[in-house]
Write a structure and sequence with these properties.
Blueprint: E1 5-8, H1 10-26, E2 34-40, H2 44-53, E3 58-65, E4 80-82, E5 92-100, H3 104-114, E6 120-128, E7 141-145, E8 151-152, E9 168-170
Parallel strand pairs: 2-3, 2-5, 5-6, 6-7
Antiparallel strand pairs: 1-9, 3-4, 8-9
Helix pairs in contact: 1-2
Bound molecules: inosinic acid and magnesium ion (MG).
């Protein structure tokens, strides 16, 4: 396989996340803590950088969702593999995703989180592949809109590999 092509460099990602952090700060002027809920595993690096790009007080939580396994497209079946450890009732919540693809995962999570009566519920995704959407999802903050290519790096994997690449790269061209 040829070396992966860089789609978004570490520098581009860093610049965009600084903007996203400021945008998010602006929309929570109250000074109340915001729960950043990262969807495991892909969002862990984005969460770490985004949280530090914000000045709003944050609390960090994780939720686990069944992943693709060794395949490149969603099974359409979503399974909760790790639930939150805390109640989010009455709190501001942002779901933090690495990439929005078919929308199956976030549509499921939005429904699940909304049942728990947060004060507000928003979505931030680093990457969005709108061409692939099957379930409608309303995002509040998007890092980059990308074409329909399979990407790896900056937390994103293919069969659990490549998560530690600093850039977002296109696999298998
Ligand atoms: P969705 O449920 O189809 O929207 O898929 C969202 C999840 O699929 C993401 O959280 C990723 O884990 C995974 N995914 C979707 N597209 C890609 C990709 O291009 N590279 C790596 N993982 C992806
Ligand atoms: Mg993921």
């Amino acid at each position: 396989m040829p070396p992966p092509r860089v789609l978004l460099s570490a520098e581009q990602i860093r610049t965009r996340i600084a903007e996203l952090g400021a945008e998010i700060d602006d929309s929570y002027p109250g000074g109340e803590p915001v729960y950043l809920i990262a969807v495991l595993k892909g969002a862990f690096i984005f969460l770490a950088d985004l949280a530090r790009a914000m000045t709003t007080p944050v609390r960090i939580e994780f939720i686990g969702i069944s992943s693709y396994g060794r395949r490149k497209s969603s099974s359409g079946q979503v399974q909760l593999t790790k639930d939150l450890d805390v109640s989010i009732e009455g709190h501001h919540v942002i779901l933090v995703e690495d990439i929005l693809d078919s929308g199956t995962t976030l549509a499921y999570l939005v429904t699940l989180m909304a049942q728990r009566k947060p004060k507000s519920l928003r979505i931030v995704t680093l990457l969005d592949k709108p061409e692939r959407r099957q379930s409608p999802v309303k995002t509040d903050f998007v890092g980059f809109t990308i074409p329909d290519v399979f990407v790896i790096g900056y937390g994103l994997d293919y069969a659990e590999d490549y998560r530690n690449l600093k850039d977002v790269c296109v696999l298998g061209e």
